[in-house]
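Section 5.1 Outputs to date
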Amino acid sequence: MNAQPTTPSPEVDSDGSSASPAPEDHLVTTLHSLTLPDGPLDYTATAGTVVLREEPEGEEYGRGAAYAELFSVSYLAQGTDDPQRPVMFAFNGGPGASTVWLHLGLLGPRRVDSGDAGSPAAPPHQLVDNHETILRHADLVVVDAMTTGYSRPAPGAKPARHHGLTADRDLIAAFVIDWLTRNQRWTSPIHLAGESYGTTRASAVAAHLMDRYYVAVAGVVLISPVLDFGTISFDPGNDSPYVHYLPTYAAIAHAHGKHEGRLLQDVVDEAEAFAEQEYPALLAAGLRLSSEQVQEASARIGALIGIDPEWVERANLRVEHLAFLAELLRDQGLVTGRIDGRFTAPAGAGNAATMETDPSIDQLAPSYTATINQYLRTELDFSSDVVYEIMSGRVHPWSYKDFENRSVEVASDLSRLLRKSPHTTVLVSHGYHDAATPFHASEHVLAQLAIPREDYAERIRIEYYEAGHMMYCHEPSRLALSQHLAEFVTGEDSAVETTSDGD
């Protein structure tokens, strides 16, 4: 273990008096080796917090003032001095989620054995070697957003200033610039990988890096994306979510035996065709539909999503996602998961309108919580006197002040990036059973990007997996996604079948 030296220096107040010591980096570097089928992969892991500084406002120039201490883990492969080795910056979303999920679930050299739907891992929770780690092909930096993980404001600063889309974007972009400078990696191909709200962040950060700093990223990875919140927000007068969620409902119904004898892909294709053609017209017709038409539509929707048509009719043909997850298996006394609809748990109340809590998060999170805390201390030799925030509600309220009177969206950012940076490519990963960020909503937004048609066809790769939001807890999906990531980063174009054709 090698602890990087730091030299504390006192802050000075405006009157010249000495204040509390200036915050300093707290970084620890350790050496590791991962045994792979084709030989050992030696790497260093640097874990800890770095102090980010900003120039003071006003006309007078001054040294940068500390405003944030961001926690990250940087994995650098040893034995290569290639200054053009790719580097991937990864983060989760929430808002309020640390990056433990991508870190230990998919990308890092060590991964958690979390189990899967129907067989979540029991304690004691374990880490195993990740032979599919992206570190085989690119250096990896996992970073936690403000108030998640160990990331905190600098002493005396307020965290709330970073709790919003624009401020969060600027903070993560500043971290990327700082890391490239510290590590002399300005000529490396840069990839940003986000999951869930992390895809909102990745799109905004990638565009901001280009707009503000003229840094063109090589690739953007969007795992379980949400690019336009209007497509998934069940607000009065907005019928889009009902349309975009319906194919996901059908996929989840299939996972629970509601389409016995049919292939998942056939069910999804039928549901998407209905959602794109008939369903919008039915919702638009509203009270102009006759009773017979309403009954016919309810029967059609009920058959697709595995729900009693009378329940669909009482819902006015509009099935809200939390209500669906509570209703689908009500006759069995179960609720289904939002993050992953393959998961179930006993219902807290038989007549509850929505589920009490999300069984997919409840059954997966404990293994991540235990292993990240153990891993940082025992293998990476890093500790802190604050709590590692796996999921933090303290980031709320999250500010979308720049989106008053319009939908929160970053599709325009992604479009602008692709227009300005002709070599940037995008990998999109969807889970069929993801009831948090439904795949059809993402498909719709991507198809409406303000880019040339040929760019959509040639620069955006879209993949599907027979799992949920965190599709890497499903082993076949984890292996497929890892392969797709490897191809994306290396630029290889080999055809690999995903689990989308499963039954």
